[in-house]
Recover the amino acids of this structure.
């Protein structure tokens, strides 16, 4: 069974990975929309792809806030942690 420390570390790592994926998606979608515009694609299709891009762009700060929240929670937890586990990974994430 994972410990409280491991749960907090894994949650933070997962959200950091999620943010990276959203940023990657924004970059790829931005290129795709630019390519569609350059190729004079259907306006409706461009509009739909811009909506997808904007949704991804909105998620980046949301996930960024979640990272800050999880880092703070982990920092507070480590401040009172007295267990035997190796905390180096947790500290490197903060």
């Amino acid at each position: 069974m994972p410990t409280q420390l491991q749960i907090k570390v894994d949650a933070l790592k997962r959200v950091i990975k999620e943010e990276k994926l959203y940023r990657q998606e924004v970059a790829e979608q931005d290129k795709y929309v630019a390519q569609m515009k350059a190729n004079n694609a259907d306006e409706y299709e461009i509009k739909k792809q811009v909506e997808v891009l904007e949704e991804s762009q909105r998620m980046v700060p949301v996930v960024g806030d979640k990272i800050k929240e999880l880092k703070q929670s982990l920092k507070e937890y480590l401040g009172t942690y007295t267990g035997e586990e190796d905390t180096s990974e947790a500290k490197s994430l903060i």
Summary: Residues 36 and 45 are 9 Å apart (CA to CA). Residues 43-80 form the longest helix (38 residues). Residues 4-93 form a domain with the Methane Monooxygenase Hydroxylase; Chain G, domain 1 fold (CATH 1.20.58.90). The two ends are 24 Å apart (CA to CA).
